[in-house]
Give the backbone structure.
Amino acid sequence: MKIAIQGELGSFSHEAAGKMLPRAKVVPCARSAEVFDRVASGGVQAAVIPIENSLAGSVAEHFDLLLARDVFIHREFHLRIRHNLIAPPGVKPNAVRRVFSHPVALDQCRNFFRTYPQVQALPFYDTAGSVRHIIEDGLRDAAAIAPKQAATQYGGRVLLAGIEDDQQNYTRFLLLSRSKKIGPGANKTSIGFALKNTPGVLFKALSVFALRDIDLSKIESRPLRGHPWEYVFFADILRGDDETARNALRHLAEIAEFVKVLGVYPAAASRPR
């Protein structure tokens, strides 16, 4: 089975894919749109994408792609994010003057840069890609911030482990495929919907869930592409494909411009790993 990820081998997406589908062959992609395109075309059977981080928030592009592409969420997984300072073999900690990583990873390690003010933070397109860069280019004054798996993947050495500021740092990943078959144990539904611009319409939309005692674990809005100053809402409801949920969605469709079910799947364990 082939599974697509955005980013390089050794990235957090690679780690999450390995935990969700241990026997799958991981196909790295440079861009998020390429991940979705490979799933839609059948070039891979599935994809694993990050959808939100507990500190940095939502991955906006992935919400847009979920709405635009014909894919379906089948599972979610919470990955504990551990940032490590990784250098080429033989580079000593006191020789490091530059550190490369994804901007979000750099931002989550502010205390490290306060402790070592002589070290310059340099944004890079990918955490694992930054390790690959310093190893392949043989940079002797540089290190990267990335998962431990990236050090194994590219032959780097971990100089410092767990340098993230906040230990409660998790990323929620989704498993996607073209199939809309709902698996056993599904107790969570993700939807996208747009509302007509009328007074009280958001209250009415949320009431379809409240009146049926359906819990919403998340709701946020995003600009609706091609419609300036109009918005689409993304919501997660803690209910699977049962009659109560179906009635709520039918009720919502009566007052919404559109409703798209993005997936029905088992909720991740309450205690992330």
Remarks:
- The chain has three domains: 2-80+169-177, 84-161, 188-265.
- The domain at 2-80+169-177 is CATH 3.40.190.10 (D-Maltodextrin-Binding Protein; domain 2).
